[in-house]
Amino acid sequence: MESALKPFRVLAYVVGCMLLILCAAMVLRYGFGNPTLSKITAPIHGGLYMLYLVAVMNLGMKARWSWPYMLGVMLGGTVPFLSFFIERKVTERVQSAAPAAAEA
To answer: Boundaries of each DUF3817 domain copy (predicted)?
Structure first.
């Protein structure tokens, strides 16, 4: 599970940062009429979010998460700042489950 946790953590932070940049780009686009940054940021965030979904699926399958929990983690990349909170909770959950799995 640790091998799947690292890509998830990296992508959670990257997607979270890109989402914040995308929010700023949307303010520039719709508030100030400058669409340049959003035209660049939106596709990058979309591609990184797809990688984030794959990382969540990989970790979720290895950790044997329920589908509702996995979907909740996936939605973490759609709300600003939520991916940082979700990443911390998932990391704690996986690390606390690792010793239990090693004993079994």
So the answer is: 5-91
